[in-house]
Amino acid sequence: MDQNPLLRHLRNARGWTHIEGGAFRIAAAVLLAVLIAGVGMLVYATGGIKYVYSHAMYLALVLAGLFFGVPGGLVAGVVGGLVLGPWMPIDTATGELQRAINWVYRMFFFCLVGGLSGYLFSIMRSHITRTQWVSERNVHTGLPNRMYLERAMRDALRRQTLSPEFLVVVVNVDNYLEIINTLGPNFSKPLMTAVYERIAGCLPKPFLLCQYHTDRFVAVTRAEGAAETLRSVTAVLRRSFAVEDIHVYVDASIGMAEFPLHGNEPEELIQKASIAMHAAMKKGQAWSIYDRSADAANRETLTLLGLIPDAIAAGEFRLWCQPKLRLADRRYTGVEMLMRWHSPGRGSIPPATFIPHAERTSLIHLLTRWALETSFGQMKIWLAAMPELQMSVNLTARDLGDPELPQFIDDLAARHAIDPRQIEFEITESGIVSDQGSAAQLLQTIKQRGFRVAIDDFGTGQSSLQYLKTLPIDHLKIDQAFVRNLLTDRRDQSIVQTVIAMAQGLGMEVTAEGVENAAAVDYLAAQGCGHAQGYAIARPFPAEELLDWLGSRRGVQAQ
Fold it and tell me: Is the pTM of this model over 0.85?
């Protein structure tokens, strides 16, 4: 490692450092001397200058140009010319010597070949050096890039010039795209150069630092005093950057991995430091250290997400349902559709282990459309036996940004001849609040087409009375967190009573989720709650079993 990696890189172009070493140059000079002398002896031993063996001198001239450039080629030309010059006979058998014009001309030609070889090799060396230099620089900022860092780390590990324990630190500019989209791409170079310089100013020497990606830097520094180094980097990045007379705040996340604790190869250490950086970003922390357990969970999540498309095609997903009870007459009037995944190799996979992660990707659209198509097909079967049945299907926040979803739903209802008023779409509070503009537009479209809209898990998200006023909501579902201890917690009772009264005042239906005993059912009915859902009513079961389940309870009051 070097105190200034940029100067080190410029001084030692990859592929030529060994040629410029002092020991190698001495060895090369000795080799050339032996080669030139050897050619002279070969020419003399084979009969003199008139024979073809004198051309072997060109090998020494070309090598001299390669090793020592133009000066080396010229010196080799002079020496070679003298070795085959005035003392070398034309024919050793007769002892006839060369005329001066002959060996002088030969020496001139040797110098020309040696000098030209040195010149051409110098151009080639310069071109290779420049190509290598460019390949190890970011094309936009000119800063050292990923190739530079990984090569430098491998070289340092091989030569054992790194300290026994060192850190790989990844610094990500989280709001880079926001800055560039606002101020333009020309702002990238001065901004990232300024960030680079501030980070470099905090790292104890010696260190390595590069712009690994457009919005990311990677540093290699000693492990000693790591906490202080990270605090310093965090502190300097929190100060605004004055770039082209514009003050910009940089929001950064930092992750680190330690050698050899977390890995032995550059790519592995950088990967694990990146994992730690993403963990810090998700948790809202300034920096984070690599955690093997979190990495294992992330790998499992990625594996599950990768299996979803094939699992859908293979029929591994199934729809379950959970009935809802109308409290006024204790009749089962609706069901909520639930997704279940049973993998032949992994067994039953709980929805909580894959749906939240799928929501962060476009896979959620694939899952939602499968759920909608299957639910509508199942609803058509149910309606033949229960014409008044209501069905609820969950939508995610990401689904609310799908402009094609309303038409897709409309087509499903028309294909299966289902009255839109018998279909209700549930969306969580957090899903609405995360992008209220898009949510309002899509929910209005769904509502205009006759479908119903419900707020799921009401009370646990970022509750706002404003969206209850402005959004086309038909139904509030009180989260089970307020229902589970309803009979023993007076605060839960007050909250439930307030939500019921508010919903009734707004003309909305109310369902209590997580109802686990008959006493809670009676309490909710007494408070005017419209519906109840939970284990006291029914546990979830496969959707195709609903009609048999209802048949077994026909004429029996729910307890």
Answer: no
